[in-house]
Specification:
By secondary structure, the protein is α/β, with parallel strands linked by helices. It folds into two domains: 63-294, Rossmann fold (3-Layer(aba) Sandwich), CATH 3.40.50.1000; 322-474, P-loop containing nucleotide triphosphate hydrolases (Rossmann fold, 3-Layer(aba) Sandwich), CATH 3.40.50.300. It contains 14 helices and 14 strands. It has helices at 14-27, 45-52, 136-145, 174-193, 214-222, 265-273, 280-285, 333-341, 351-354, 357-369, 383-395, 409-421, 435-444, 468-474; strands spanning 63-68, 84-89, 103-107, 114-115, 130-131, 149-156, 197-202, 236-238, 276-278, 322-326, 347-349, 374-376, 400-405, 457-460. The strands form three sheets. A seven-stranded mixed sheet has the order 1-2-7-6-3-8-9, sandwiched between helices. It has a five-stranded parallel sheet with strand order 11-12-10-13-14, sandwiched between helices. α6 (265-273) links the parallel β8 (236-238) and β9 (276-278). InterPro entries: HAD-like_sf, HAD-SF_hydro_IIIA, HAD_sf, P-loop_NTPase, PNK3P, Polynucleotide_phosphatase. GO terms for molecular function: ATP-dependent polydeoxyribonucleotide 5'-hydroxyl-kinase activity; double-stranded DNA binding; polynucleotide 3'-phosphatase activity.
Length: 479
Amino acid sequence: MAGSPSPGNGGSSSNSSATISKRKAADKPISPPPVKRKAQSAISKGAVASFFTPTSQKPKDRTVWTERSGGGGADGQDSSPATLLVGRFEPEVEEQDGRKRRKIAAFDLDSTLIVTSSGKKFGNDPADWKWWDASVPTRLRKLYMEEGYRVVIISNQAGLTLHPDPNAKGPKNAGKAKVANFKQKCAAVLAQLNIPTSIYAATARDNYRKPRTGMWKELCDDYDIPETEVDLPSSVFVGDAGGRTARAADNESGGAATAKDFSCSDRNFAHNVGVTYKTPEEFFLDEPPREFTREFDLAMHPYEKGKEGEDVLFEKTNGRDIVLFCGPPGAGKSTFFWKHLKPLGYERVNQDTLKTRAKCFKAAADFLGDGNSIVVDNTNPDPEGRKDWVELARKHDVPIRCVWFKIPKPLCEHNDAVRALNKSLNPEARSSLPPLAFNGYFSRLREPTPKEGFQHVLPVEFKFRGTREEYAIWAQYWS
């Protein structure tokens, strides 16, 4: 029958429209499938190639790393585990140089030879570095090749831990990664410099750390230069920690403002070893020296040979009494007791020994009950704490005197470091104290006065009292 739908049409005009739509859709350009983004690998092509390169065909690593221990103190106290990291670089073409290089040009690393290329204060990426100034590598090569200097790098790296405490909390491998990154960065720096040299990195607060001289002694031993044969007048140490004061911007000359240095440790290190000190700006850019200051200045404490009977600083004026010390850690309180009060028959009460305040009061009461005079050898910075000792004196019907050690914090920190790092000056084998011990005392300090109930207050200023040999140790910068 004419006009009847054929079996292939599906019997509907809508099917014809669908067919046309499909044709139109087929005529449209087909978009390519989305490109899959490649995952970025942290492994470089060079590292992959190195992995598949036979060991015999790999280039020799020109920097050899070793670790050292024994930086505990100037008396040879051993320190374990190792805290000094040493990298020694030898160029591929080894020189035939028989000269005994007695002139030493030593440099700090960060902010002296290199800075971060990212602008960060500290870079974690071993590739995040650039020369402090473009002139640096050329100047160092000239020192070695033309001027006969032994060129070395001496750096404090307290952020590194060579052997983490197994009992410490946190990731165990974090420290290893930092050390590996540091080695990689230094190897690249030394390779670009390409002269025979070494880097010494002190990772702990022991005798290796500048301004202490442990790293200097190591480099002299490594290069077979007796310390007494170093040409000190011609040698130099260059570092950015020079104690320079802040400088305001000078609008007339166009000079920019500069911040003060974070410390004076580099200048003090040069003083300790007896060489000329220069900042990077002075050495590489020939800029004039800037003003600097030291919180603690050895020039204010010259050696004075005492005379017999001159040091009578304390006299016993009561038959029985309490002497209360007030003074910061490192002020010399214990030394004062042993030298001036123990010979007068005083018994010592000390919380470092007895461990608790309660035990101190019990020991004091026992001594007083036996008819003895006592010295309370503690810091006692505030009136509230001193009040308890005044009450004890009233209870036992004895007078109480106060000896106030008026010693500034930088000097106390110096004394503490000298004591901790030198066995001959540390009869009680005390370890160094954290900064909190000093900050806590000075934040709580209130000057003692007779109004608190003391018979009198005896102020004591610091003066080094010891032999010339002991002074030679004390009169170095240690902190």
